[in-house]
Amino acid sequence: MGESKVSVIVVSYNTRDKLRHCLSCIEPEHEVIVVDNASDDGSADMVVTDFPRVLLHRSEENLGFGPANNVGAKMATRELLLFLNSDAYAQPGAINAQAAVFAEPLIVAAGGRQLNTDGTLQQSTAERLRIWAIFLEQTFLEKLILKTGGSAYWNTSRLFRQWQKTQQPQPTEQVMGATLMMRSSLEERFDERFFLYCEDTDLCHRLRRHGEIVYAPDAVYTHDLGSSSSKEPWRGVARYNVGKELYFAIHSGPSAFVVCLLLDRLGALLRLVLWGTATLVTLARIATFRRRAEIFWRVLTAKVTSYPRPPTGQGRTPYGGTRIR
């Protein structure tokens, strides 16, 4: 098979073994670019040794997910960009199936069907992010809604059922960045104020100005969710909160930003009280409850540098990305 139209961009940060698996699942006709975010586990050297055809960029620091993907996008030469997580593994034909939906000129971006490691459907598409969804998430009400088969935010299950009936890609507000494919001709890229989390939500918000975003279940990936944050789960939660707050600061203004910030702190406090109380009142699983309480204590006390503030002008005024300490 000749060259495909796809440049696959994989950002890696200390995920050597998963990165190896990810790269081994990509067919040879695709251009592959790895941006290593200053890993110290030998990831970059593994790419050089095991995958000599892969283009490698070694960053001297951890740039974050969005900025590193932008580095890869500048190196890409093909018509379509696939931003692929290092813990996302393409099933045979998935990348070509995803690229095929771009035969429709109105489509500007597409996400694949992401499966959990046990083969169940993973939430990977959503409605537009609104304050109501944050309220439900932080007060545990979203979990109750999901158990009844609904959601105020995630729409993957509904879109998958529709696809089963029609076998056609399904329009959606946003797709997750783990398997996001877009046209390289568009000027939109990840906003580098986002370090990790919600940068894909922001990108899709801007991509919708240019055309349609679709969910393409023909393109199947297994996604071992959460690899980058597994060693320090509190940091992942804190970064996710900051990403949401930055998104509202940019797109909805200071009032929405403050409301989101307060809801995120309320959610962390509720979880701290829950797991702290569980630690005190039961001897069973006490170590687990203590660890969970410690996570949300650190989320509540996390220090943020370059904290999100409402932008000026075009809404793209750079002031450095957010960092959690």
Structure characterization notes:
- With 325 residues, this protein is of the alpha/beta class.
- Helix content is 41%, strand content 19%.
- It has eleven helices and 13 strands.
- It has helices at residues 16-24, 43-50, 65-75, 94-100, 131-138, 141-147, 156-166, 199-207, 233-251, 254-281, 286-301, and strands spanning 6-12, 31-36, 55-58, 80-85, 88-90, 107-115, 125-126, 170-171, 174-175, 179-183, 212-223, 304-305, 323-324.
- Strands 1, 2, 3, 4, 5, 6, 8, 10 and 11 form a nine-stranded mixed beta sheet that branches. A two-stranded antiparallel sheet has the order 7-9. A two-stranded antiparallel sheet has the order 12-13.
- Strand 1 (6-12), helix 1 (16-24) and strand 2 (31-36) form a beta-alpha-beta unit.
Short description:
With 325 residues, the protein is α/β, with parallel strands linked by helices. It is 41% helix and 19% strand. Strand 2 (31-36), helix 2 (43-50) and strand 3 form a beta-alpha-beta unit.
Which key phrases capture this entry?
alpha/beta, 325 residues, 9-stranded mixed beta sheet, two-stranded antiparallel sheet, globular
Record the SSE blueprint.
Blueprint: E1 6-12, H1 16-24, E2 31-36, H2 43-50, E3 55-58, H3 65-75, E4 80-85, E5 88-90, H4 94-100, E6 107-115, E7 125-126, H5 131-138, H6 141-147, H7 156-166, E8 170-171, E9 174-175, E10 179-183, H8 199-207, E11 212-223, H9 233-251, H10 254-281, H11 286-301, E12 304-305, E13 323-324
Parallel strand pairs: 1-2, 1-4, 2-3, 6-11
Antiparallel strand pairs: 4-10, 5-11, 6-10, 7-9, 8-11, 12-13
Helix pairs in contact: 1-2, 5-10, 9-10, 9-11, 10-11
